[in-house]
Amino acid sequence: xxxxxxxxxxxxxxxxxxxxxxxxxxxxxxxxxxxxxxxxxxxxxxxxxxxxxxxxxxxxxxxxxxxxxxxxxxxxxxxxxxxxxxxxxxxxxxxxxxxxxxxxxxxxxxxxxxxxxxxxxxxxxxxxxxxxxxxxxxxxxxxxxxxxxxxxxxxxxxxxxxxxxxxxxxxxxxxxxxxxxxxxxxxxxxxxxxxxxxxxxxxxxxxxxxxxxxxxxxxxxxxxxxxxxxxxxxxxxxxxxxxxxxxxxxxxxxxxxxxxxxxxxxxxxxxxxxxxxxxxxxxxxxxxxxxxxxxxxxxxxxxxxxxxxxxxxxxxxxxxxxxxxxxxxxxxxxxxxxxxxxxxxxxxxxxxxxxxxxxxxxxxxxxxxxxxxxxxxxxxxxxxxxxxxxxxxxxxxxxxxxxxxxxxxxxxxxxxxxxxxxxxxxxxxxxxxxxxxxxxxxxxxxxxxxxxxxxxxxxxxxxxxxxxxxxxxxxxxxxxxxxxxxxxxxxxxxxxxxxxxxxxxxxxxxxxxxxxxxxxxxxxxxxxxxxxxxxxxxxxxxxxxxxxxxxxxxxxxxxxxxxxxxxxxxxxxxxxxxxxxxxxxxxxxxxxxxxxxxxxxxxxxxxxxxxxxxxxxxxxxxxxxxxxxxxxxxxxxxxxxxxxxxxxxxxxxxxxxxxxxxxxxxxxxxxxxxxxxxxxxxxxxxxxxxxxxxxxxxxxxxxxxxxxxxxxxxx
Length: 715
Fold this sequence. Notes:
56% of the residues lie in helices and 17% in strands. It is of the alpha+beta class. The chain has four domains: 12-207, no CATH class; 250-356, Beta-Lactamase, CATH 3.30.450.20; 374-469, Beta-Lactamase; 559-708, Histidine kinase-like ATPase, C-terminal domain (Heat Shock Protein 90). The strands form four sheets. The chain has a five-stranded antiparallel sheet with strand order 2-1-5-4-3. Strands 7-6-10-9-8 form a five-stranded antiparallel sheet, sandwiched between helices. A five-stranded mixed sheet has the order 12-14-15-17-16, covered by helices on one side. Mean pLDDT is 77; it is low at 164-170 and 666-670.
C-alpha cells in the first residue's frame, strides 16, 4: 500500500472531525461548560437526525408508494423538516426549548405510529427514544413523568384502537420490554447523576485545594514582597548614602538649584572651587556667581521649557572677584509624575585646559607660520596612502590640484610606478621608524620635474613627507657633469691627437728623409731603395689612418649588423690573410669545432677583431713557432682562443694592453701602433662579449674571446 493510501483514512477522519466540530459548535452566548456540552450534544443529534432521516424517507417513498397515504410517514417528514428549524434555533443557544420540541414530536410519532396501517411496530416501543432524550437533557422527574404519560397514552389507545394483527402475547411482551427499557433508562440516569455529583464534588474539592494553595502562595508572595520592600528600603537608604558620598567626594563641583535659580545645596568641591562655604552658597543664586548672567538666564529658561542643553562653557566669578573658565552640564530633574523638581548642574574647572589650549593654539600658529615659510611641499598620509593634509607654497609643483587628491589614496592620484614606490616607502618608514629618502620624477606642466622626498613616521599609522623640487639642482648637476665629460673628452681628444701625431711623426720623418736623399743621389738603385722606404711608410700611415677611422666609428657606437655568424668559417681564410701579409713566419693552426653554435653579430667586425689578435700574436711570435686558434662552446657562450709562443706580457702590463696607443716601451720601438688590441676589445665589447688574457714570461700568451651564443630555435 502506498503512503498516499495509508494517509487517506487519517485525512478523512481529520476532515470528518473538523466538520463535526463546526456543526456542533455552541452559541457564543453560552458560557457555562455544562450548557455548552448539552448544546453541542443536541446540535450533533439534530445533524444526525437530518442526515439519516432524509435518505430513509426517500427510500421508503420510492420502494413503497403506498406509504405516502400513511399518517406516520408524513409525521416523520414533518419531524425531519422541523429538524432544520430546531438546529437553527439550537445554534442561537435555545437548547432546552429545541430539545423539548424535538422530544414532543418524537413522542407523538412513536406513540401514534403503532396504530397506523403498515406500522413498523405493533406497540410504542420506540417511545424509548424520546425518553432517552429527556433523560439526557432534563431531570429524572421529567423522564418519569414522560414515561408515565407514554404508558397511559399507550393503554388508552390500546383500549380504543387495538393494533392490527397483533396477538395478546406480543402486546404483553412489547409492554414488558417497554417497562424494562424505561427502568433501564431511569437506572442509567440515576447512575449518571450520581457520577456527575461525584465529579462535581471532586472538582469542588480540587478547586478548594487550589484556592488553599493560592492562599498559601499569596501569603508567601506577601511575605516575600514585604521582605523585598524591606530590602528596597534598605537599598534606598544605602543609595542615598552612596549618592551623598558621591555628591561630596565628586571631583567636579555639583550645584542644586530651585526652579528660580537659587542654590539649594552644593558639594565641597563647589565651595573650594569658588572660595565660598557651602552655607554661603546656599544664600546665593546663579546670578551672583555667573560672569555671563544673561546667557545663564537663557539656559535656565530653556531648561524649564523642556529643552535638552548640551555641555557648555561659562565664566564664573570667585569670591575674591577672579574669573575662572568652567564647563557646565545642566539638567532639569523631574519627579515620578514628570513634574519639575529642581535644576542640577555639574561644573568642571577647565582653566588649566583653556591655558593649554591657548598655548597649543599659539604653538600651532607658530608651527603654521614655520610651515608656511618652508619652500618645500609637505604631505601627511595614512598607512593606506590616503592624503590627510598638505602644504604647498608653489601650487605649480603639485601633480594635480588639491581638490583632486585630498581624501583620496596615492594609487588613485599618482602614476602606478610612482605610487607603488611611495607605498613601499611608507611601509618602510612605519616599520623601521627611520627617515626614508628617495628621488622620483613626474610629468607636470608639459615637462619632467625631479623631486626629492624625505619621509618620517608621524604616528602609529601616519607619515609626514617633505618633498623638494630638485629639477634645477639636477639640471645644474647635469650641466656640471656634462662639463666634466666635455673636459674629459677634450683631454682624451688632446691625448689622442698627441698620440696620433706621435705615431704619424715617425713615418713622416722617414718619408721626408728618404725624399731629401732621393734628390741628392743619382744611383738608380739607391733611389729605388729610398722610394721603397717611402712606399712602406705610406702603407704604415694608411694602416694607421684606417685603424683610427675604425676606432672612431667604434667609439661613436656605430650600428652593428645582427646576423648569424659561423666563427668556423673565418678561421682558415683569416690565417691565410695574416700569413700573406707578413710572408715567412710562425705557423697558424686552426682547430675547428664541428658543432660550434652561431653568433649573432657583424661578420666584418668580428673578422677584424680576430685579425687584430692574430696580427698581434704573429708579430710577437718567433718565425719557427706555432700559433694555435681553437674554438669551443657551452650552452650559452662561444669561445675562441689564440695561443702564441711569444715572449709573454709582464703582469704589470696586462691592465694596459687594451689602452689606446699603449706599448711596452716609452720609445715606441715595439712594432705596431697600439691600436690593434683596443680595436679588438671594443668590437667584442659591442657584441656583448669579453676578452680574457693569460700570459707567462717566456712561455707566450693566450687571448680568449667569449661571445654570447645565438639562441637556438626549435625545428
